[in-house]
Amino acid sequence: MNEVKNIPFFNYQSLFLSDETNYIDIIKDIGSRGAYIMQSDLANFEQSMAAYTGSNYAVGVANATDGLQMVLMAGGIKAGDEVIFCSHTMVATASAIHFTGATPVPVDAGQDLLIDPDAIEPAITQKTRAIVVTQLNGRTANMDKIQVIANKYNLDIYEDAAQALGSKFHGKCAGTFGVGACISFYPAKILGCLGDGGLILCQDESIYKKLLLLRDHGRCAESGDVLTWGFNSRLDNLQAAILNHNFKNYDDVIKRRREIASIYHRELSGMEQLRLPPPPDYSENAEHFDVFQNYEIQAESRDDLRSYLSDNGIGTLIQWGGKAVHQFKSLGFTQELPKTELLFKRILMLPMNMTLSDEDVIYVCNIIREFYV
Ligand SMILES: *Cc1c(COP(=O)(O)O)cnc(C)c1O
Known about the structure:
alpha/beta, seven-stranded mixed β-sheet, three-stranded antiparallel β-sheet, globular, binds pyridoxal-5'-phosphate
């Protein structure tokens, strides 16, 4: 018998405790400067995010969901429009569309768990204005295929890149393919802060200027004059300071996540009961550079496997509480997406975080093998 280990899916305490001294110093610094809202730490963070992603502009906001809604609004999405998105995403993608007044139209995910480009065209109508691509699990979709469809029907592309900071397709960062995108700094995200936080990336100056107004009550920063209806959705300067600190070792974080994914792949590949995500591609001009926000597999007898892992001290998660967005019937969706519904009987996320040792990952894999024997 193996010794039973305790491997939580995500360790929220450790996020703080592993770096406690530095966090306390940051809080003291911000407090003693009285620098809470829209201060230099935020401006610095926005600059480094724009530079890191190769985006023209970055705007810190209260959370990614607000960010997506505001960038859709800035791009002109409004009542009467339809916006296509993949049903394997957080409800936030759809609610951001909903609150612009537009209708969110869910489509199927493919076997890579991202939006199925072949599912987009059949969902297009006269009213379709845009596609929101969720760059799920830290992997960027095949944006070439999606761009071809967008061009053909004159649709705008937006990205829910909440899970994908630093992920690339053909060397180009998630969040930079369309009009704009959101990124999340929720604590369990790859770059997490100690609370809620988000960012918008955009390329066009006119969109950027609208976003600056939208996130701050419609107020012009220079004159203080109110120029439009807006929200209160600013990224706290304290969270920005924490993010500046956490971003310093972001390359190492991604490197470690890719290592963990490689171990999972090495230990689990060849098992017919499982379908694994593609392993990290280490080649110079990789088509996909994945950052592994999550390690989401498809598994036979998923629920039994999950209990077996739990009995052995291993925390797992089924994304979105086990339902694709169109399955939340209380939101008014009438679509049926059998392919995605089938996926949701099989998907499971294995632990993927910075507290895992190589031995932990191998332990998880051994328990999975044991289950299927
Ligand atoms: C986390 C997440 C969001 C929401 O991010 P918040 O910052 O919590 O608003 C949206 N979409 C996806 C795909 C996410 O994973």
